[in-house]
Amino acid sequence: MLDRARSWLAQDPDPETRSELAALIEAAEAGDEEASAGLADRFSARLAFGTAGLRGELGSGSNRMNRVLVAQAAAGLAAYVVEKAGVDAAPPTIVVGYDGRRNSRVFAKDSAEIFAGAGLRAVLLPRLLPTPVLAFAVRRLGAAAGVMVTASHNPPDDNGYKVYLGGPDDGSQIVSPADAEIAAHIERVAAAGDISTLPRSLGYEVAGESVVDDYIEATAAVAPAPAGAAGLTWVYTAMHGVGWETFSRILERAGYPAPIPVADQLEPDGAFPTVSFPNPEEPGAMDLAFAQARESGAELVIANDPDADRLAVAVPDPDADGGWRRLTGNQIGLLLGWRAARRAAEDGHAAGASLACSLVSSPGLRTVAEHYGLDFHATLTGFKWISRAPGIVFGFEEALGYLVNPETVRDKDGISAAIAMLGMVSEARGRGATLSDLLAEFDDTFGAFASDQISVRVDDVSTIGRIMDALRADHPSAIGEVAVERVDDLREGVDELPPGDVLRIWLVDGSRVIVRPSGTEPKLKLYLDVRGDSSADAAERIAALSAGARELLDAIG
């Protein structure tokens, strides 16, 4: 372990991580057990490159995000792009973006230099920008690939490296087998040794403002402000992220009234000083926004996560603690899916068009698609799959991700989704209705769908495998008072989905429970969905199903 650490130290160009690692090595050499454990944590493994790229805690070592690991990833990705292009092709383009997290610009600049040194046309976005702008730029610039340096809504000490592919992939995130092929190239670079021997060049380009301007123009066109937007009072928070500068220009272009901002969270700040976990889904993350909404008498709260690829929405609710209630990702997704389906039908484009969502998201989207004569696709979790649904006009996942303009961005986009939501709210205002009224209208039209989620965090990840094995070995005959109708094991391949470690449990009353390990955290997740005759009936059903699911987990132990 000490040899690995010394080898890493010798090639690390970052003074901060060099100092951190040198101190650990010195203490471990002196027999400090805590330092030795720290080295083992950093060097007994390396951050795995997969379909989500890289993501992890900042720090020294192969199991952390740092300049050595990023340089290896950039060189591996460059080798993959060159290999796919062929020896006689013109130099392919790779575009690089970055957000406001710690080291994001440093990692992006290192990558651009390595891409240019590998003979590629490397284009660095002009400043810190939302992730959707990078996804847009991959298509706009005809790039073979793109990299976004971000950890999205992860804790403050994390960063990441998200990879997109151009060409036939249209700027979507990578999927298999590209992930494994890129990972193999990265491993070869890492095995070769010192990153200081990697060719670098300052001959990368900095993208012009026209790329950002084109994204703004296309996104403003998603929902130009109707007459009902006049006088709308709403609150916005960027959650210390990069969304506001771009979003504010789009609002002006589309004609919406400016929001009342949460000033303490409006500008990028990688320390995230007002939130411990900058994710709108986390308890407390939107407290400042709710306080601002109460003070200003707002009709609506809109939030983006730090890289602005997710959207959260909240409405006044006298029954909620503090008088405000955040809508679930499924509620927002169903409303936006309703909007997309209705527009496709009205425009005569329903034939061949489709709605798509991850298999753990609300089954209500299928009902909407069937109502308007559109196709429907349920995919594995992640927008790398959702964005590839044939004929997609709208896609979403329950974790606050929405794709409302696939002709522009083939990834989740919290800014275009916010514009679409403002359009819906404004149209409703024009006829004297609220967003809460729209939710009730949805229930009246399609049925009352309700969802819940149970997350079980574990200290030992083997516990997750043990629970999954127990459920596979002995399928439950009932959950709570409702009998189980059938169990789909997606590991065996179901509904033409790629195999996955997922169990889908159908109950005789039409309810559904999906069990899967988290892809990013040591958690087992259960997704619960019901359909009721009314919102009250659905609420009662989901509460009973949730209680039954918890009893099932307790019985497994």
Automatic annotation (TrEMBL):
Cofactor(s) demanded: Mg(2+)
EC number: 5.4.2.-
One GO molecular-function entry: isomerase activity
Domain Alpha-D-phosphohexomutase C-terminal residue range list: 485-542
Ranges for domain Alpha-D-phosphohexomutase alpha/beta/alpha: 47-189, 214-317, 329-441
Keywords from the UniProt entry: Isomerase, Magnesium, Metal-binding, Phosphoprotein
Pfam families: PGM_PMM_I, PGM_PMM_II, PGM_PMM_III, PGM_PMM_IV
Heme found in the keyword field: no
InterPro entries: A-D-PHexomutase_a/b/a-I (IPR005844), A-D-PHexomutase_a/b/a-I/II/III (IPR016055), A-D-PHexomutase_a/b/a-II (IPR005845), A-D-PHexomutase_a/b/a-III (IPR005846), A-D-PHexomutase_C (IPR005843), A-D-PHexomutase_C_sf (IPR036900), A-D-PHexomutase_CS (IPR016066), Alpha-D-phosphohexomutase_SF (IPR005841)
Family: Belongs to the phosphohexose mutase family.
Name of the protein in its database record: Phospho-sugar mutase
Species the sequence originates in: Microbacterium insulae
